[in-house]
Fold these 4 entries.
Entry 1:
Amino acid sequence: MTIALSQFDEVRLDRVSRDFGALNALRDISLTIRRREFIALLGPSGCGKSTTLNCIAGLLPVTGGAIWLDKSRVDTLRPEERGFGMVFQNYALFPHLNVRQNIGFGLKMRGTPKAEMDRKVNEALALVRLQGQENKLPGQLSGGQQQRVAIARAIVIEPPLVLMDEPLSNLDAKLRLEMRAEIRRIHNELGATTIYVTHDQDEALSLADRIVVLRDGVVRQVGTPKELYEAPAHLDVADFMGFRNKLKGKVVAVENGRAVLDVEGARISGVARERLSPGSSAYAAIRPDDLEVGEAGPNAIAVTVDTIEYRGREFVGTAHSAGGFDFVFRSHQAVEPGSTVYLRADDGRVLVFAEPTQGRN
Amino acid sequence: MDALAPATTIDHGPSLRQRLAANGFDAVTLLVVPAAILSLLLFIYPFAFGFVLSFEPKAGGDWLANYRRFFSDAFLYETIAKTLWLAVPVTLLNLLLAVPVAFRVRLMRRQRLLTTILVLPITLGTVLVAEGLLNYLGPQGWFNRTLMTFGLISQPLKLVHNYWGVFASLLITGFPFTFLLTLSYVTGIDPALEQAAATLGANAWQRFRHVYLPLLMPGFAITFCLSFVQAFSVFPSAVLLGEPAGLTRVISIAAAQAAFEEYDYSMGSAIAMIMGFVQLGIVVAVLASRGLFYRGPASGAKG
């Protein structure tokens, strides 16, 4: 294989900040990315994930902190001097150049000899499985093919770091799954180091070795997909990890990492994920999968069913409690809309978080 | 075979209105009518009238006499070269100036303000610009006086009533138009393309050369044509700022003289037709060369 990515040990973001006027889009982002890692930057829109990526690529200057590639500082370099490969959300293929010319663009800018360039472009074409399409213009390609060209163009310059900015968001659902697997395959085959921006937790969970959850320009949690999925550190991370039911209540007791909440008179106990003090407000977060329709009893709350949808293997229902909390739950039997049922969750599956302080915390 | 026949025959196909609408004709199409009438009255009719008139020489003779006279009289046929010698360099220079300015303005936040300032000369009109230039660049104008005060020159430069006076005036009145067109083409290009080129290692010049320029060429061709046509029909500034009997005797002056000094409308029409065909020739040549360039959408993704 002639495409051999530049090797290094780590990329380090050291308290990177980016201000837009008075707005702090990024605040003190510190992160170390090791060689061959697949890192996903995950967060809702406006959280600073794309800003982070653009700062690493050099498309946006940082306003504070530094970015290091091993021992050399890169945040002071222009993007063309950094040599990171980037895949853009809209692919940004050169519309006047055919597939081969698009992929070869970076090599041509570097003055790579023709023979070597041809060899590398052919290999990149094979890697993204686009042989036979070399002479087409980007406008003649489907979305998935354009995506492949964008990836090939980014990796053929043998970058130490591959940056991807929501590369799948313009594809339809089926193609998205297919390309997701392709991206991971290419990452593995090349032994690449990838930073991948997404707002889709499924993508992040399935692709990444480690996930960085961002919110309001601040790192909220860094961890493996399993860590984040099973043990989100904050309510907003939990929200992102599929804990869609959030019940606000008063802390009644805290003991041995367990907390008991009073939610509308019902006692809900769960695993305390943050420091809690009795009497304070807190949230119990529960996944739809962990709620079951059952009888009154411990860890159960009365709700009125709003809708029930048939989903093949199960039903998905929505409901609301007397206090106005909305619920999403799954059920194996149909329940009548308008009826009152009890939703119950195992206390081991309930996570309890302190109420977020107003604004940024 | 009977089994395959439709059970009931359809008596009515789509109505005439539906069929017309399917071909793009509906009530809205009627809105074109006033514009069509206007262009017929104000453009096509006078053009056709002039065209016919040009083949009816005032002095008699055969139908091509006017054209023969034009191309045998150096005083007349040289106006083509003189006009081109003004219009082509002015247009090229304007385009050359407009591109870097447009690239800079594209990134500015106060774009509107700067654009307004740059566009102001359009509203001034040629005559006002000519007056201004006569005062400013004249032998006693600020420009010459300043240069003389600093001892850079000992005698005033002759900058008006010659080629350069007309040149400057055309440049000033033509620039805003060229600039606005150029700006619209430049801003029409997806900035992600430049960013992509940068991450791929292209420096500023390479990004311009390999990304912007090829995508802008068709737009530049159109801009050139429109600006050129404006400059080619130069009349007031050639009279006011140039030497209308000598170096800047442009083709429109020849036409005006024939029509309004010799009262030979037929000859005037013939010159106007020749002027039209020269313009058309250049425009067609430039537009045809567009075929050599990429002409699709200037963005990186499917629309």
Entry 2:
Amino acid sequence: MTMTQILCAVRGGPESRETVTYAIDLALQTGARLTFFHALDAEFLNYATIGPLSVVYQELVEMGKFTMLILVDRAQRRGVAQVNYVVREGNIRKQLLQAAIETKAEVMVLGRPTRSPTQNVFKFNEMEGFAAELEKEGGLRLVLVPEMPT
Amino acid sequence: MKRYGKLLFVLLILAAWPWVLREDVQAEGADVQTQGTAVSISPLLTGYIRDAQAQPVLDAHVTAYAENTVLAEAVSQEDGRYTLLVTANTPTPTEITIHVERHHFQAADYVIKDSDLEHLQQSHLLQIPIITLERHITPGFWIATFVFMGMLALIALGKLHNTLAALLGASLIFAVSYLGTPLYDGLYIFHFEDALRYIDWNVIFLIMGMMIVIAVVERTGVFQWAAYMAYRLSGGRAWLLVVILMIVTGIASAFLDNVTTMLLMTPVTIRIALSLGINPLALLMPEVMASNVVGISTLVGTPTNILIGSYGGIGFNDFLTNLTPGVMLALVGLILYSLFVYRHDLRPAETGAGISEVLLQRLAERGRITEPDHLKKAGVVGAGMIVLFVWGERVHLLPSVTAVMGATTLLLWIKPDIEEMIEAVDWTTLVFFMTLFISVGAVQEVGLISYIASGIGRLVGTNLTLAMLAVIWLSAILSTMIANIPFTAAMLPVIGFLSGNIPGAESKVLFYCLSVGSAMGGNGSLIGASANMVTAGIAERAGSSITYMYFLRKGFPALVVTVTLATIWLFIHF
């Protein structure tokens, strides 16, 4: 399979281990450029009685970037030649689609949603619709990687 | 003795002067008719109104009448006292009836006759025995109770923002009181003016002052620096890192609020954990649990302590001497527990899962103080505030005044963008507290709190040990299910009642028990404390989910360990 660009959307951390490993393996096999994608969703802060939103927001952005840099570091150590990352803010679905179009990715690697409603960015029953949307809007294929329990 | 009696009489007349004036205005026509037969000295009747729990009843309407003629009217004061100045000129009655009415209570009568009446006629002054009012359950009681429970449920389930839930509760109570009462009197709960009395402004201003100070401190980068220094000091030893982070978080939480502490510590902790190649939860869970435990070591460490301190008259010093050693004991227990529970997760770090130099540099860059000048000034003002918190009690300086003075001094000194600083005050939280006070006031007004208090009172009797255990463990368990701030606010009148009725409880030990239970109980479940929720929220966004069951598994045993140790301390100390 000829492939030039892979987009791997993860949160980072232990729960993304399998997805990241799959994306790195795929990039090594195909020689494609690998882009890690992280979306910042700070909506949960609205449900806390808190003050320092601006400072926290900066910290969350830095946390996202740092998490992605660790993945980039990991990919480079494993020999992926072309690897970078994107951190976006706002509606995750919309940002992910936009990043897919911008990077001209052929494949998007995502962690397979679990049945737990709180742990996933995408609901389990939404994935089929999202895959169709990706195919239609960006012409790319979606790969769902089952995560091992942490 | 007689001289003091006269003095008391004169004082009572002076105290009653406003009522005399008011009566003059209200009964102007009557005065004209009775001018020729006016009495030289008006008889004075005084007494107290109490509820079944011997608590003073405010705003009870007291009427003295004889043979269908109203002799005098008065309203009971905060201490339950009323003073009736009989100005109506009536022939010598055979008996005088004191009639007491108040919403949410059954009306009560006391009849003055025989020797008491003779005494009144001779001395023109009579102290009436305490009149006890029994509670009366109205539809308003059920509505206020339902609204309060609904508010707690909405907060606990996260269905509505805390402030919106409390605002909804207060609005419903007013809507029923104002719109429902004209249709049916039993729907009355309380009026706006009554509701305002329940708002503890000492709490509001203390929180507001501290928010301004925190807003300055959080922008200095001190949290990120402290976390990075913990990483450096640990030298890559994960167990040591956990211990240092727990202590750092604990100290920060003792002076700043737990939510702010965890909001700023969590992202940097996750970065450190990922750098070391260990599970971030192995650092975050001990951190947030330490925050919940150590936060109560000072008056300003948690909103619950601010509530307890203000209601119970417990100062900064009192918390330091009576609670801090117990909290330290609990922290030691928590550290040992955390090291044991996360012993497997902490191992990979020791095998050396490292990251590149570039990332380490980035970690170091983000771990530095960004505004050293502001930090220095905040440190000086903060130290001054602590001195005033400690010594100010001698001159009755309220903590809220100290906090506002400290915040103002800091703002004048660093001259920040004032708009930005005022925006940094979390007005949403302040509105939450104000409307929460109103909702709690409503259930207090209709008698729910009294029923709970008398229920617990019957359960524990006069046994202080039993009362301490009941308050600590009941509040700890309940705090795992419902938000601890509204819970504490609702429990305060209950604790006030128990403290006044159980021998030995006047030391305010039960207030400390409530502090321990409601704060350390927060470790029992994910929804037990706001700090848990924000930590979980951030961790989840970094791919380390803290589920309800995960928190329960790790947190509940920690609750048992820490609350047990704190209980031991309270029993030893009191």
Entry 3:
Amino acid sequence: MEESQIKVPVIPELTKEDFVSDQMVKWCPGCGDHAILSSMEKVFPKLGIRKEDFVVVSGIGCSSRFPYYMNTYGIHGIHGRAAAIASGVKIANPELSVWMITGDGDCLAIGGNHFIHIVRRNLDINIVLFNNKIYGLTKGQFSPTTSKGTKTKTSPLGTIEIPFNPGELVIGAQGTFFARVTDSNPKMMVDVLFEAARHNGTSVVEILQNCVIFSNKVHALITSKETKENNQLHLKHGEPMLFGKQKDKGIILRGTNLEVVKLGENGITEKDILIHNKFNHDTGVHNMLARMAPPEFPAALGVIRAVEQETYGQALMDIIDIAKNTSTLKSVDDLLNSGNIWEI
Amino acid sequence: MTHKKNHVVELDDVVVRFAGDSGDGMQLTGSLFSDSVAFAGNDFATFPDYPSEIRAPQGTIAGVSGFQVHFGHNNIHTSGDLADVLVAMNPASLKASLKWAEKDATLIVDSDAFIEKGIIKAGYDTNPLEDNSLVGYNLIKAPISRLTKEAVKDLGIELKAALRCKNMFALGIVLYLFNRKLDSTNAFFEEKFKSNPLIVESNKRVLKAGFIFAENVEAINPTYKVQPAKLKKGTYRNITGNRATAWGFLAASERSGRELFLGSYPITPASEILQELTKHKQFSVKAFQAEDEIAGICSSLGASFTGSLAVTSTSGPGLSLKSEAIGLAVMTELPIVIVDVQRGGPSTGMPTKSEQSDLFQALFGRNGECPTIVLAAISSSDCFYSAYEASKLALEHMTPVILLTDGALANGSEVFKIPKVADLPEINPPIVEPNDPDFKPYRRDEKKLSRYWAIPGTEGLRHRIGGLEKENITGNVSNDPLNHQLMVKLRDDKVKKVANYIPEQKIIGNDSGELLIVSWGGTYGVMLTAVERLQEKGKNISLAHFKYINPLPKNTKEVFSKFKRIIVCELNNGQFVSYLKMNFPEFKYEQYNKIQGLPFMVSEIKEKFSSLLNE
């Protein structure tokens, strides 16, 4: 009888409409951000989380307008600091589902420090990194992910800088979850965002996003109809890394390097192809997968890394519990009257 | 006539300064002496004076670390001007500290340290103990190193470990000099080193050896007694400003029912606030050591949005880094307390020295029209009440509050009458109830003009805020010109209205007259002492010491209008005086400034005021 009295919180069935805000979406027509917003609106209702328990946090940039367009609790912060703001939200209330929306400039230039530290701490926050390899909102300067040699407003003769690869950065910062998707594949985007939400710890989803104005077709080699079959490797855990229209090309590990091979050539069979293991704690292959880029390699898409590790939140709650159970101080009055005190 | 060995002289108040190498344990010696002073019922205040280097080269002036204790039979408001007793553990500390001692002070020196090498390192040409340069002082040459080794020789501890106890020999001498007991110090050894009985024993022996040495030396005659102070009935403790600040936040958290979140990055001289709060997880305190100053405040702001009592602590350079985020707090109208433990600036400046030079930064150091409440704690123990009140104002008025303390308050300590948390004023943040049909993100309380706090997780209150200008009431992003002007005015008026919720400015002395001394923040103890002493001599002088900087108390203008002359004293180049000129240009102000990284001395300001009164 007693069991039936235990109240399980009922989360009402939610739909996309529950998350659509009343604000006008002011991104350029054709911007990749629209597709990302639409995917997020599909993912949120399906997570089994109360709509009041979502908090969307952003910094500055085109992508960072995102919170205004989602009907959740939200903070549009200052440039680069979304990770720090989101950390405070999550630590203050671990029950909340915290989403950080950021771009390549916001996250990896001005916010680079906060980014590596949030990843290192493994706070249970979902980071969605819109990578269009350009500063859009300030109208076209190069960013930390702009490919070397690219001509922009601040690199009229082409950039002379080596760009960051977000995946490598995440893995190097002890990241537990990294995935990459394109803004042109909504189905994969939804699946990956769903998995990122479910991951315990910091998840980073890099979205190869197209800026129609300042870096149009910057990801075309990966996303265009003509080349995508040969330039996209869709990773699935436990399955061989095959790609190409006929799924006749694959990735093998030769020595310490990855290599593209063709099935049937030089005696290669499916058995030789590398099997994807996203749970592997060792970063070696994950790092190499994150690095792969056309034309030599296909770009790895999907969940590259998803390893289990204690979250910051869990570790913090554990030490708070220990302190509560062992401390003799039950109130601030106890504290004020502890140690050396005297009466007059 | 010769004094009997047990001759005891009564004194009203005494200043003792301990000086030694950074590694000599002078801070510990000083705080143990203050504990013994506390147990004897004296009022007291302490001031540590140490270099920013952890271990500067041994035996050099740069490495001298000092700790001053001022205790007395009357109320003690300062850590004292010049020392009546100076303990110098080596030639460098004598050389560096003699200027902080009275001309007839008792000097207790480790004569074993005055060997050629040490004398040269300190920059002396000849041995000061032998060359008659210390005539006039009561010089006590104690072979501290040798007798320390002697005291522990049969315990079988290493020479290095034995010499580490020599500060306790010096303490033993001082305890004898003031007719104190060894009990509280011995109890400390037993508690602190309980896992190592050998260390307990060696410290006890050395302490006792110092005490007995003093008893047997003719030069230590007479000894002194300072009667207990006439403090109000109650329970007391010793507290530093940084600890008091941390505890004030804990009390505010308990009283407001809001979990405490501190986002902070280590910086001298504010780190102890972070360190202290990390110890109190039993109160669910989330003390987050962030990756930098900016993350410190931004994480706090995130926690504030989420419903915590949010605090960030720093010093001047850190406040500079936090400027943009304070702007975000002003724009989002979220409660947050920013503690700035001021130090000598600009830039890295003088990290371990104290100054009041961040006032302009606190008032004006942001882009746009960006007012915040600014408070300044007035003493080490007041840091508790200031932190509490800063929290109350932030939470109830939904706005950032900058709380200025300083290095001297932060590291200095004084006697603190322990309050009951239930006796502190209530704190009632304007939290919105679930599904409130009238909720709009920027709807305001009519009296305070504060917006309401809608905390994530609450049903029916989902909303977005951010750094872009917001439309009045709805909180939608707005670039409308008239709306911007309206919002600027509203944010400004909100802070101005805080004047209705803070006490009026008090005057110490007559509320009209010849000379009004104006000061603010950490200089209170010195100003009060100097002004009271002059008032006792019948001088026509009053003091208005400010704790509420922005907004200023409502009666400030009235206070100023009743004096012929106003002199503004501060440890900077004249920031508060400029602020007063801006607010009340109708008055003529004189100013007195000291920018040496050191507190005012009672004697110097008394002299200044006396000369003004004689003009």
Entry 4:
Amino acid sequence: MIEAKICITLKKTVTDPQGITVKHALESLGYKEIEEVRVGKFIELKINTNKRKTARRHLDEMCKKLLANPVIENYGFAIKEVK
Amino acid sequence: MKFGVVVFPGSNCDQDCFYVVKYVLKQQVRYIWHKDTQLNNYDCIILPGGFSYGDYLRTGAIARFSPVMKPLIDFAHKGKIVIGICNGFQILLEAGLIPGVMLRNNNLHFICKDVYIKTENTDTPFTNLYKHDQILKIPIAHNEGNYYIDNKGFNNLEANGQIVFRYCSIVGDTAGEFNPNGSIQNIAGIVNKSKNVLGMMPHPERSSEKLLGSLDGLNIFSSIVRWIKSH
């Protein structure tokens, strides 16, 4: 079995109102040194296969088709074999 | 002529659209369950507002893969009339029938109120009964209506006359302060390049009867009837 950890983030050119609000909240807690906050999504999934190459190809398709919207989001993933 | 209103799990403006078409417009209308794939008998299909699939992942992202969507995309590519309202607009964007995406409202609030929008293109199947620059009072109710498209895409929209509605003041000022959600250049509704698919965030089905405080949205539906009858 392969476990994948997928990270989806907004592209740099896209404003992130959620990130801006979180930054303000952190500042109000006293953390004045924060330069920027960007909020994204984290998805974990398990795939019934041991073929790393196929898993990577499928994950890339899944991200492009459904999990991320390539117009505004970037994605990346890491995989490892698990029992 | 016959309208169809698609019902996804989580749609909640389907009955309002159905009601307006049947009892106000007095046209034939049927519900289309999202698993149906027969769209041959329809002249116009409405994707209603709501929270299809709980807005999981991104608004419209999962509804976009419902079985009805493949025939709906073919329907649109044939030049037939499709209108997506609110969540319906978000689904059209995810399906790629209209360019761009929705971000969260810039104030992070769900906004539910009457707004004013300006009719910028009256040469479409959806707006042919309005006057150019006519100001309409129509309610919005959404959390992700902050329309975004890159500069190149925006220039294309403008050059092709695809921007149909912009948020404005009661007298038609389209300054940023009259933009409720932060959408690029106050965009409230746009059409695809061939102008047979409209996506809009405001709810015309909630402003089609005097009892509800505004009749300004009714002519969107009446324009569709007029356009289809004359084509």
